[in-house]
Amino acid sequence: MASSSLSSRSTLLLASRTAFRLVSSASCASASVGKRAFGSSLLHAASYSFSSFRSFSEMGVGGAVLQSDSEYPLGLTKPAHLSLPQISFSAKEIELREWKGDILAVGVYENDVSSGVLENGRLKELDSYVNGVLSEVTKEEDFSGKTGQAVFARLPGFGFKRLGLIGLGKKNEVFTKALKGFGEAIAAAAKTAQATHVGVILPAAQNFSTALKLDSVSTIAAGALLGIHEDNRFKSEAKLSLLKSLDFLGLGTGPEFEQRFTYVEQVCSGVFLTRHLVNAPANVLTPSALANEASSIASTYSDVLNAKILDVEQCKELKMGSYLAVAAASANPPKFIHLCYKPPTGDIKTKLAIVGKGLTFDSGGYNLKTGPGCSIELMKFDMGGSAAALGAAKAISQIKPLGVEVHFIVAACENMISGTGMRPGDVITASNGKTIEVNNTDAEGRLTLADALVYACKQGVDKIIDLATLTGACIIALGNEIAGIYTPNDDMAEEISKASEITGERFWRMPLEESYWEGMKSGIADMVNTGGRQGGSITAALFLKQFVDDNVKWLHIDMAGPVWSDKKRCATGFAVSTLVEW
Fold first, then answer.
1. Which of 54, 267, 380, 427 has the greatest count of CB atoms below 10 A from its CB?
2. Which domain holds residue 165?
């Protein structure tokens, strides 16, 4: 990841770049593993019932490779058993007095309450049932329904032990963000109260269409499932959530709700995998471990997914000099990962590729990350793009969309320092024959992506999305919660925008200013690998563009900011949901 000097994490993430691409393409085959060498300029949807649940381990949710009993990595760190949320979702149309559980969670918009007075008819009915407790709590706690507000009251003598009011903000604010936050608040409350059974009421939904009710239910369910999840593999003692069931009351019932719950689980299983991969330290998640995880996913979903893992010699045959140059200093061999999804039936109408940056650790190389704000200790997340690609592969392989072939491509390696490593000033040759003068070894992610993009284009895909924790410059521009998108294609930008409206993940289209390419020209090669400080995320995207065929639609996502939560000190699983919706 390319660095720059800042004091906050925005600067801290400077060093992070990852290309994550969705491209469609042709076939893939089996797996192989091998050695490594230097660069090539020298070479010229399962069913989910209302009443029961399937555990995510049954659905093949990751971590199997990372829990191997046969190998102990540096530091003798062995991940503990992977614990994943197991929640039974149900949609019920029953009288409130018939429901029994630990917490009844009520989502309240600001429009539903005015100066402590309940304005919503459903809220008034609920208040009458609980003998005015709702009105009392609203006034005493000055609850107004603002986003982030939450109050709880004990209710002895009723079918539920606690009643919770959770603010959703104004109705005209972002729908997905508010409801996902509602689900996360439910998860937090369940953890605190050690609740096993939670009911959900959304009074405002009485006026929603069926489609909007389905969207509401699935968004809240996703928020709760992701909110309850904790990656506890590396803790000597871990407290697990007790939440087992979530009932949606008065929002409708039927098979369409069951289908939504299934879809939510499938997507969340991909997000969990992505979080686990990004959280795993570099002494555990090596390039080989990442490749093994990819092979494990393909094995689990072998009816629609296959894997091809290229070793150093195979990459040399493909003249991937740019990728191999980055990998040259590490004792851990690089692995080039290619998963291919093909639908179980029907014709292929579109071929896509998702290309993810896969630096399992980025020291910066000879341009070593040093000084305050360099965040070298966080550079395990420089493979966040590849983790999102594999998470999307897992989810898509369960959902099994028809008519589309998807290639998931990762050039996995480490950027280290040694006598065999890439030096500032070296000239390397990518697999499309273009030469690159390396003026900064800490701008390595784009070098690995260059060969990955060339490879993706050779699969005959129509579109590519690459994702990368690529630049600190993007964090400076957009902060830690918004990813930048760069593309010459308006249609692709619109597609990602629409997908993100559904998922609640945030993206912002940035300019792809062609005149900035002047700053990337070399006196002795076709280009340098990094320009000046100004417009650094734009020049990085322009660099990647040099390795995409003109007939292939392409979009680059710089996700250096939202890949990691500073507050929770762990991975977010960003981009998986949007890729699946796309």
1. 267
2. 94-252
